[in-house]
Amino acid sequence: MDCDANIVGEMKPGMIISDTLKPVVYEKNEDGSLKIIQKAVVIVSSK
């Protein structure tokens, strides 16, 4: 998983990311694969 979420209100079906506090940051390794350097921090709310 590449993000951590804070849920606003009750957990319901159809939740969406409503705000991004920190973006996900990847680093490309020498072999071309991607490594997560920073997980995204997001706020999730119902539609």
Describe the overall structure.
The structure is a single chain. The protein is mainly β and 47 residues long. The protein has one domain. It is built from no helices and five strands. The strands form two sheets. A three-stranded mixed β-sheet has the order 1-5-2, with no helix packed on it.
Question: How would you describe this structure in keywords?
Answer:
mainly beta; two-stranded antiparallel ribbon; 47 residues
Helix-strand blueprint:
Blueprint: E1 3-7, E2 16-22, E3 25-28, E4 34-38, E5 40-45
Parallel strand pairs: 1-5
Antiparallel strand pairs: 2-5, 3-4
Distance between the termini: 22 Å
Helix percent reads: under 10%
User: Strand share of the residues?
Assistant: over 45%
- Give the rounded overall mean pLDDT: 89
Widest sheet: strand ordering: 1-5-2
Poorly predicted residue ranges? none
Q: Please work out how many helical segments DSSP would assign.
A: 0
Q: What's the total count of β strands?
A: 5
SSE run: EEEEE
Structural class: mainly beta
Number of structurally distinct domains: 1
Q: Which radius of gyration do the C-alpha atoms yield?
A: 14 Å
Largest sheet: 3 strands, mixed
